[in-house]
Design goal:
The protein is α+β, with helices and mostly antiparallel strands. The chain contains eleven helices and 13 strands.
């Protein structure tokens, strides 16, 4: 009994701290969390810029277009992240024979700056490394020297499995002109690193083991995922495909603020309605379940904020849905408990038996929801992923809330 009381006190203290973090009434004891203080809101809540670019792939082979678009999307994501937006979304859209990039920048105040930055074709270049000797007050540094070898001379980059060592590699193929440049560059940099840059940012710096003749080379020492990502970036940098802005839409913050107010209002009404139903129908049990529901709601919101998760309308919908599922677990437990009480079992024994018999149903229903949420997150994009993620986290915490928090409260107060 003593351990249960200590556990409940810890949960209450944690909930109060989480509540002040979610909605700080004052900042004094929580200054160390200041970097997490602002909520990250998506395009549909704070407004921003919606851009659609059309990509000209007429000079790219049909079989290489999908991988080229993936690489170009990766480069675009790197570019939009420099704006520090809450939830940059870069998606590939294909309509008939046309390829498009759909870019959403939440909270961007100057869309023209974004357009200027995004509108450039990905620029790939190879640079030599040069060590700058240490001075009196400076340490030795490595600088990069530009060369004439750029993405325009790269025919293709491909993630492969090496035949000799059976390890992931990246195979590079240059055209005739690029092969000559590559031979000269590698010849004078044996034993040194040759840096690869995309949009003036280094993405890899493999070491040159020997002079490379013929315009074919491999990059080793990478994982399968790294090989795939780097190959996509290299192909994007070598892509002679201009992108053209075909649509621009500025979403005002007033629309987002109104949506946010409605979402918060709907969530509050939903929680209060569920709590009222539980108290009216289950009386004392319902009161304890409502207390557990408040704890669940506060802790879940604190986790959302602590992890800097971007909240969108769809994400809020997933969270509200998880609230209903949290209560659903309590209903299963209470109904089982009532059945035991009708048999003449004592309340303490009835509660324990109610939890024991309800657990398989709670486990199976939540596991099926978790599987669905994982599939949605894995195979969808944009706002559907936000819905799936908040639902997944909410369901996981609701299982803890129903089994641990509600059970602890009932054990203490019923006794």
């Amino acid at each position: 009994m003593k351990n249960l009381i200590i556990l409940l006190i810890v949960v209450i203290i944690l909930t109060i701290a989480a509540g002040l973090f979610v909605y700080p009434l004052f900042s004094a004891p929580f200054d160390f969390l200041a970097k997490y203080s602002p909520w990250r809101l998506g395009l549909d809540l704070i407004g921003g810029t919606h851009l659609i670019y059309e990509v000209d792939l007429s000079s790219i082979d049909q079989s290489d277009r999908d991988s080229a678009m993936e690489g170009l999307r990766d480069v675009m994501e790197r570019r939009v992240n420099i704006f520090g937006v809450s939830e940059p979304q870069v998606a590939i859209a294909k309509e008939g024979g046309f390829y498009r990039l759909v870019i959403e920048l939440a909270g961007v105040k100057n869309p023209q700056e974004a357009i200027n930055q995004i509108g450039r074709t990905a620029f790939l270049e190879f640079r030599e490394t040069m060590e700058i000797p240490a001075g009196e007050n400076k340490e030795a540094q490595v600088a990069y020297v530009q060369t004439e070898l750029t993405g325009r001379y790269l025919i293709k980059a491909e993630a492969i499995i090496g035949q000799s060592l059976n390890q992931p590699q990246i195979a590079l193929t240059f055209n005739a002109e690029g092969a000559k440049m590559f031979e000269e560059i590698t010849g004078r940099n044996v034993g040194k690193q040759l840096a690869i840059f995309i949009d003036s940012e280094p993405i890899s710096a493999p070491r040159v083991n020997e002079k490379i003749i013929g315009g074919k080379a491999v990059i080793t020492g990478v994982s399968s995922e790294e090989a795939k990502n780097l190959a996509n970036l290299l192909n994007a940098g070598a892509l002679p495909a201009p992108i053209k802005l075909v649509s621009q839409q500025l979403i005002g913050p007033s629309l987002g603020e109104e949506s946010l107010k409605k979402a918060i209002f709907a969530g509050a009404i939903g929680v209060l309605s569920v709590m009222a139903f539980m108290i009216v129908y289950y009386r004392l049990f319902g009161f304890f379940a409502s207390l557990a529901l408040l704890i669940y709601t506060v802790l879940t919101l604190a986790i959302f904020k602590l992890t800097s998760m971007t909240m969108t309308l769809s994400g809020i919908a997933g969270f509200i849905l998880s609230i209903g599922m949290a209560v659903d677990a309590n209903i299963l437990i209470f109904e089982r408990t009532k059945e035991e009480i009708k048999k003449g079992v004592s309340k303490i024994s009835a509660i324990e038996e109610g939890f024991r018999r309800a657990w398989p149903s709670i486990r199976d229903s939540n596991v099926s929801t978790i599987i669905t949420a994982v599939i949605l997150y894995k195979f969808t994009s944009s706002f559907v992923q936000g819905f799936a993620l908040t639902l997944l986290i909410g369901v996981l915490i609701s299982m803890f809330s129903a089994i641990m928090i509600t059970r602890t409260i009932l054990r203490i107060f019923i006794k």
